[in-house]
Amino acid sequence: MKEVTLIATCTFGLEAIVKREILKLGFDNLKVSDGKVEFLAQVSDIAKVNLWLRCAERVLLKLSEFEVLSFEDLYQGIKSIRWEDFILKNDKFPVNANSVKSKIYSLSDIQKITKRAIVDRLCDVFKIDWFEEISSSVYSIEVSILKNIATVTVDTSGEALHKRGYRKRALNAPIKETLAAAMISLSFWDNTRVFYDPFCGSGTFCLEAYMIARNIAPGIMRHFAFENWNLLKSDVLEDEKKKARFLIDYDKDLKILGSDIDRKSILVARDNADILGVEDEISFFIKDVRDVDLENNYGVVVTNPPYGERLGERVEVENLYRDFGKKFRDLDTWSIYLITSMKDFEKFYGKKADRRRKLFNGGIETQFYQFYGPKPK
Ligand SMILES: C[S@@+](CC[C@H](N)C(=O)[O-])C[C@H]1O[C@@H](n2cnc3c(N)ncnc32)[C@H](O)[C@@H]1O
């Protein structure tokens, strides 16, 4: 198996950004659908793509796509896949299923039949009748049936890609690293401007901004499911990581600031920066947003304030947005980018956004408000 089809999955609303990332990595002929970008690659690219995608959740290896009108169709379709090309005798291969608008929809039956078809094929090939599933190689298989078309994939990532490895502790509704990176990418911030998150919590936006500016591969600190597979040579990921280390740009001047009213959050943000090894390069400080004093110096704010979703918080958060608006809306050289689920945010902030975009934050429907400032002269 040399050329393969990969599917990068992402949060709804981020498909165009993930597409842009994949194009930048050198792939073309991309197929975009809800929450997915599909493309052709070489087997060894599995390492590069997992290492570099900032805004995707997982990279799946697509094995087959076929029509299923009955369980027999499913069994035959699954059994015809050359599982022996990658699964070895002792490997684990859990099966997950989902079905939408299709003739067969019992998820437990889809799972059972898929598993049986794989086991039957591998028993024939390996001449054994029992699988211990004890090795550290895990092939998480998913059968996804949509309008009677089954797509069979294996997850190459393991833990979801938002888990970069630097966030050991988190408090208070942290934003996913992948969504934070996407919002920064939509802000077009670069190191010529100050970056500031005045509701920084555990520091996710500042840490992601840092990694983007220094061109640090988001997966550089972590491991992936495919590392234990026999499909890729064992040194492919290490080689990609070596190349990635060489590409880190330590020369740029950066000014990245994060503040929060909560002392514990600032301590966690500093710990996270420490894990990433950048504690001296990002300034995290305790401050109520009402006391922030900013110069008009072409900065970019990307932030995730409290949403006021919990009972009794709404009025408090409306007042917070009012005060935040008084401080920030008239800073005419700054660009402000903010995500919240509060529908009438602009009313409290006191200004209409130049652009809004629907995004999902951990299943909550939110709007990403974009207030554009001028570019530095
Ligand atoms: C949704 S959380 C931000 C989470 C953060 N993006 C992360 O990834 O960890 C909102 C943050 O706003 C902070 N906050 C609430 N009121 C504030 C105020 N008046 N000034 C500054 N920060 C405030 C909270 O302490 C909390 O950390």
**Radius of gyration, taken over Cα atoms and rounded to an integer in Å:** 23 Å
Based on secondary structure, the structural category is alpha/beta
User: Please, how many helices?
Assistant: 10
Strand content: 15-25%
Helical fraction equals 25-40%
Q: Strand count, sense and closure of the main sheet?
A: 7 strands, mixed
- Spatial order of strands in the largest sheet: 2-3-1-4-7-6-5
Mean pLDDT: 94
Main attributes?
377 residues; alpha/beta; 23% strand
Description:
This protein is α/β, with parallel strands linked by helices and 377 residues long. The chain is built from 10 helices and 14 strands. The protein has helices at residues 15-24, 45-52, 71-79, 107-126, 177-187, 204-213, 236-246, 263-276, 314-328, 345-349, and strands at 3-9, 31-33, 36-42, 58-67, 95-100, 140-146, 149-155, 195-197, 256-260, 282-286, 300-303, 335-340, 355-361, 364-371. The strands form 2 sheets. Strands 2-3-1-4-7-6-5 form a 7-stranded mixed β-sheet. Strands 10-9-8-11-12-14-13 form a 7-stranded mixed β-sheet, with helices on one face. The mean pLDDT is 94. Bound molecules: S-adenosylmethionine.
